[in-house]
């Protein structure tokens, strides 16, 4: 029993480390466009996001229950060692994509880790396949498309409504709107992503017999998970913020407001339904949609392609790492220690590599090196096709003025 208690403690600590990496990995979701347009200073933006992430963690437990009892069958022989292996797989993938500056999904890294470790440690019957399809895979495909279409239409509507307004006054107003919408995204992020760690900790407590199956997360779990993701958010994932704010497209205040509002609505709706979707994919889709919505804007499809590739690799990659870790942790104490040491070594190496080209709040708005070559990227086939189908609104810079009577 003493060994079990210690192991559960290790799992909880590892889950909070994952929550911390989730925070700095996903800061860009709420604040990248706000920072890139100058609506808020970088440090102010991440502080605001951190506070609202913490508040959002207390608003719902629907997503936490999806994790603790929806995807994995806690009665199928799931052990704390397996959960530990799943978390290590998710953390390693989060750190690798953070180093590359790619806004991949922390949520899918966690799902992949849980699925991979469960398949090795328990077998196929330990995974609820229908729940994975309905509450993970389908939202993963639909959410970025829905959010992208919403922000494209919202961007076009914003420019049309402001076609006769003073550009400087309009930009100032939309920057204020960006602050409000960024706060809403941060709140929504807390209601969705913080709960995933709550669900994992609750699952560990259930497998250890500490709480009853299908129980809600205890209050101390909610507080600790909310605090961990808030701290990670405040640290600021500057590498990914640069990619989201500058690497995908050039964002103006109208676009930033439209992208954040569309993303927040999508995330809040999914949290209410218990869909543990990827806030990263939603917000990235919204940014790309906002780029398509403004005449003359260029979506850098090379960067977008790398992001989509990372999205597709996240579940299997994290699952493979977790599966290997699960094979070791199943061997006993020495296996758990080996996985812990290897995970720490990999994370330390990634951190050392990141220090060679540091990105902080002081240089986050510099153009990304990858984007320098594409700063004058011509309008791509996808952008041109969409522009041909949906004519640009009157009054948008780069369009022919409407004839007067």
Automatic annotation (TrEMBL):
<feature type="transmembrane region" description="Helical">
    <location>
        <begin position="334"/>
        <end position="354"/>
    </location>
</feature>
<keyword id="KW-0812">Transmembrane</keyword>
<comment type="similarity">
    <text>Belongs to the inorganic phosphate transporter (PiT) (TC 2.A.20) family.</text>
</comment>
<dbReference type="Pfam" id="PF01384">
    <property type="entry name" value="PHO4"/>
</dbReference>
<feature type="transmembrane region" description="Helical">
    <location>
        <begin position="221"/>
        <end position="241"/>
    </location>
</feature>
<feature type="transmembrane region" description="Helical">
    <location>
        <begin position="133"/>
        <end position="154"/>
    </location>
</feature>
<dbReference type="GO" id="GO:0035435">
    <property type="term" value="P:phosphate ion transmembrane transport"/>
</dbReference>
<dbReference type="GO" id="GO:0005315">
    <property type="term" value="F:phosphate transmembrane transporter activity"/>
</dbReference>
<keyword id="KW-0472">Membrane</keyword>
<feature type="transmembrane region" description="Helical">
    <location>
        <begin position="45"/>
        <end position="63"/>
    </location>
</feature>
<dbReference type="GO" id="GO:0016020">
    <property type="term" value="C:membrane"/>
</dbReference>
<feature type="transmembrane region" description="Helical">
    <location>
        <begin position="308"/>
        <end position="328"/>
    </location>
</feature>
<keyword id="KW-1133">Transmembrane helix</keyword>
<feature type="transmembrane region" description="Helical">
    <location>
        <begin position="197"/>
        <end position="215"/>
    </location>
</feature>
<dbReference type="InterPro" id="IPR001204">
    <property type="entry name" value="Phos_transporter"/>
</dbReference>
<feature type="transmembrane region" description="Helical">
    <location>
        <begin position="6"/>
        <end position="24"/>
    </location>
</feature>
<feature type="transmembrane region" description="Helical">
    <location>
        <begin position="109"/>
        <end position="127"/>
    </location>
</feature>
<feature type="transmembrane region" description="Helical">
    <location>
        <begin position="83"/>
        <end position="102"/>
    </location>
</feature>
<keyword id="KW-0813">Transport</keyword>
<protein>
    <recommendedName>
        <fullName>Phosphate transporter</fullName>
    </recommendedName>
</protein>
<keyword id="KW-0592">Phosphate transport</keyword>
């Amino acid at each position: 029993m003493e060994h079990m208690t210690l192991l559960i403690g290790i799992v909880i600590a590892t889950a909070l480390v994952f929550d911390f990496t989730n925070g700095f990995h996903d800061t860009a979701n709420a604040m990248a466009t706000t920072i890139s347009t100058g609506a808020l200073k970088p440090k102010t933006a991440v502080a605001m996001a951190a506070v609202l992430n913490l508040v959002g963690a207390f608003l719902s437990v629907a997503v936490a229950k999806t994790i603790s009892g929806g995807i994995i069958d806690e009665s199928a022989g799931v052990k704390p060692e397996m959960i530990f292996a799943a978390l290590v797989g998710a953390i390693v993938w989060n750190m690798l994509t953070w180093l590359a500056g790619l806004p991949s999904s922390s949520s899918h890294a966690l799902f992949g880790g849980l699925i991979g470790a469960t398949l090795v440690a328990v077998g196929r019957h330990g995974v609820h396949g229908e729940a994975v399809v309905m509450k993970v895979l389908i939202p993963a495909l639909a959410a970025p498309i829905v959010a992208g279409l919403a922000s494209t239409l919202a961007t076009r509507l914003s420019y049309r409504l402001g076609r006769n307004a003073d550009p400087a006054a309009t930009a100032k107003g939309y920057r204020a709107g960006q602050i409000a919408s960024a706060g809403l995204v941060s709140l929504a992020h807390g209601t969705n992503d913080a709960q995933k760690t709550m669900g994992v900790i609750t699952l560990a407590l259930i497998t250890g017999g500490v709480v009853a199956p299908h129980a809600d997360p205890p209050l101390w779990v909610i507080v600790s998970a909310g605090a961990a993701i808030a701290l990670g958010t405040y640290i600021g994932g500057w590498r990914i913020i640069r990619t989201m704010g500058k690497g995908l497209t050039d964002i103006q205040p109208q676009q930033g407001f439209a992208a954040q509002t569309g993303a927040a609505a999508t995330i809040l709706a999914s949290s209410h339904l218990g869909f543990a979707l990827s806030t990263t994919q939603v917000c990235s889709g919204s940014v790309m949609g906002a780029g398509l919505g403004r005449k003359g804007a260029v979506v850098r499809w090379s960067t977008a392609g790398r992001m989509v590739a990372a999205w597709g690799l996240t579940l299997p990659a994290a699952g493979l790492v977790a599966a290997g870790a699960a094979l070791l942790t199943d061997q006993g104490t020495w296996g758990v220690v080996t996985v812990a040491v290897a995970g720490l070594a990999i994370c330390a190496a990634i951190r050392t590599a990141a220090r060679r080209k540091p990105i902080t709040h002081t240089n986050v708005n510099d153009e990304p090196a990858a984007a320098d070559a594409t700063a004058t990227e011509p309008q791509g086939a996808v952008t041109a096709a969409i522009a041909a189908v949906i004519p640009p609104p009157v009054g948008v810079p780069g369009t022919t003025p409407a004839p007067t009577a």
